[in-house]
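Sample entry (119 residues):
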Amino acid sequence: MGSYPVRPTFPIDVRPGPGVITGRVGASLQIGVDIGTIAQNLKPSRNQFFTALETAYPGASATVMAAVPSDPSDPVNRAFTGSLLVAGTGPLAQFVKTTLGLTDNQLATILDAARLITE
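Predicted structure, serialized as tokens:
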């Protein structure tokens, strides 16, 4: 099977948004990215989240893991084993918050710290 560049025959719509600036120069499209703004809006990975959680509350990961239902069809089990990214309002973060009795501010602090961890 041959290799060929993908050349769309339709207009590509790139819209500006938080941290993204678009513009045209002649026939080319220029995209500018503000890494700081984008980094603030990214969800941390599961590993980043649990690293930040363990740093803030040593032993918390073991407590959370012990509370996860063993049934693979349980939504909490699926969130715990299958989440790649962790959103503050998502099922994994909310399960951790409830299990550990965290406040919204404590959870937000953990998520902020997790974003700063490099993998």
